[in-house]
Amino acid sequence: MNVIERFFRDLTDxxxxxxxxxxIDELKSTISDYIEHHNExxxxxxWTAQADKILEKVGRARLALNKLRTD
Length: 71
Known about the structure:
By secondary structure, the chain is mainly alpha-helical. It has helices at about 1-15, 25-40, 50-70.
């Protein structure tokens, strides 16, 4: 999820906040241009966390959430 959030943060910071849009079409065009430029040099996302560690963390989060629901 962090990669997606980072992409939208960059889109917002680098393109959307710098402009004043007079129409929805202009906003769409700006977003499309950003995506095209971003895709010119794509880089794959490489997972660094191990699956078992992720699953352990999810299990702990589920226990904590269930505890909150019962309290």
